[in-house]
Amino acid sequence: MTLLSQNASFPESGKNSLPRIKSVDILRGIIMVVMALDHTRDYFSNLHHDPLDFNYANVFYFFTRWITHFCAPVFVFLSGTSAYLSIGRGKSKKQAARMLFTRGVMLILLELTIVRFGWAFNFNYHTIFVQVIWALGWCMIFLSVMIFLPLPVIAGTGLLLIFGANAFDSVRSDSFSVPMIWDFFHQSDSVFLFNHSIRFFILYPVIPWAGVMMAGYCLGYIMQMPAQERNKWLFAIGSTVTLLFIILRGINIYGDPRPWEIQDTALHTILDFIKCQKYPPSLLYLLMTLGPSITIMPLLENAGGKIGGFFTVYGRVPLFYYILHIYLIHSLQLIIGLSMGYPLHIFTDTGSMFDPKLVWGFSLGWVYFIWISVVLILYYPCRWYMRIKMTHKKWWLSYL
User: How far apart are CA 187 and CA 172, in angstroms?
Assistant: First the structure.
């Protein structure tokens, strides 16, 4: 079989012949749970500096932040995979494209409204920041057009965006007559809108995230193979991507704006080696996170029982969980902070709680305790909604 051949086909539309693949739901569930750790640390940690900075953070803080680097790439990647698999479950390409486009528009609107309020708890739109849901929405819109092209073209375009993005790191938005154009596509930065009255901060530019979703979409072709053949491909691809990260990072020439350096200890040198740029995502950041994630998918396919079922719950309702966890974590911060006598503005202004001079926050042990509590609290609401999606076929449920 020629991988990603131009004649790659889907199961016949309307037969719903392709069952759900457990590893996709389980892996997505794992990264959703880990994602909550990062956001709990944001709201509750007493470390108000970059946890990847050795001058302020210890190894435990470093890994607490570093492990969450896997979340956004895997989330976007698997969204592309799910789009491909949805065609195998009965959607035509036109139906899938319509779904991707409308869902993308909905996600962008959600980011600017419900998600933004959950992060900030205020209606002050003088500062607008857009993150992963924004990027996910735009990536879906682009993919809704790309899916009509042959699979090799989609794969080639996705890889070109992923591997070529760092070639444009030296291009800055201020060299454009409309700076926001470059910020939208490649540079994580803030720009002023409407006569300098509104600051618009794009944390997740579309490139190379659109490439990640396209690559994930193409992986869907492999995911529809018989389990034994699929697992061989997943292990081969995942291990190759991981090895490529090690080689390119070792060469230290291309793939990340910040080369690694020998540090004062061997451990710090290793940590510096795996410290790659997330905003915007560098090639090495994506290889480092996607490689191991793809490699473990065959193992997750055999993860049954309560543990597999636990993560599947979150993986089946990722957007529902995403919105709930932001509101829950921020609400807990507000309740605990006010009960301890801190002023309200600290918890309704995302800039204030990251102020290095602020004394608010708890040790890392408490952060982990709150994180686990948040995940467990959300389990039953997510399971309830998962069962609704499984037993009801209303069109709007597929959007949440």
Answer: 7
